[in-house]
Write a structure and sequence with these properties.
The chain has one domain: Alpha-Beta Barrel (TIM Barrel). An eight-stranded parallel β-barrel has the order 1-2-3-4-5-6-7-8, surrounded by seven helices. It has ten helices and eight strands. The N terminus is likely disordered. The radius of gyration is 16 Å and the shape is globular. The protein is α/β, with parallel strands linked by helices.
Length: 214
């Protein structure tokens, strides 16, 4: 199956990444608000729960994202992504190859790759068949305070050299996100500025509006 045929889901807009949440009811409540606010992609990421609860949450989020026709990605774990029929998996630097992930999730699913602050891994990922790449952290991140920092110019370079959707991540807010979109980001991956607020739905709306202004 060709790569063109795999592109059923578009990586564009607010790319919400779940916070580490042990309370499944709270997780689902907040995600619903984000989807109502316009989040177009949801990545399930949880470093705190055991495998059984992770499976339960991943399944529940699959059902919720299907209700909103939202692209659903599982972080790190291609096997879990396949198990819950997610729309794809996102790989970090230590999560294995694109081909290994593809063997688990199948040709119709998305495989995204974190490339941090370098263009070369992104070019390699593209050659290996990745469907999108992510760069960052662009700003100071409370989730990963020691993350390597990337410059907005990297997005400009990636836009010229890659024919893939580009995701920006790391300390992104409604105030700084427009700069990254103008520099070449197709999607903004957000954690803290989306979930650690009083009104999740309003925050998601504000992020979504950035894509109409950039």
């Amino acid at each position: 199956m060709t790569k063109k045929m795999r592109k059923k889901h578009v990586i564009k807009g607010l790319y919400a990444i779940t916070a580490d949440e042990t309370d499944t009811e709270q997780l689902l409540r907040k995600v619903r608000l984000a989807l109502q606010g316009g989040a177009r992609i949801l990545q399930y990421r949880n470093k705190l729960v055991d495998p059984n609860l992770k499976l339960h949450q991943a399944q529940a989020l699959r059902q919720l994202t299907s209700e909103f026709d939202c692209t659903y990605i599982v972080n790190d774990d291609a096997q879990l992504a396949a198990q819950v029929d997610a729309d794809g998996v996102h790989l970090g630097g230590q999560d294995g190859s694109v081909s290994a992930a593809r063997a688990l999730v199948g040709n119709t699913k998305l495989v995204g790759v974190s490339c941090y602050n370098h263009i070369l891994p992104a070019e390699q990922a593209a050659k290996q068949g990745a469907d999108y790449v992510a760069f960052g952290a662009f700003y100071s991140s409370g989730v990963k305070p020691d993350a390597v920092r990337a410059e907005a110019s990297l997005l400009q370079t990636a836009r010229i050299r890659l024919n893939l959707p580009i995701v920006a991540i790391g300390g992104i807010t409604q105030q700084n996100g427009a700069t990254l979109i103008k520099s070449g980001a197709d999607a903004l991956a957000v954690i803290s500025a989306l979930w650690n607020v009083a009104d999740v739905e309003a925050a998601a709306q504000e992020f979504s509006l950035l894509f109409g202004k950039a």
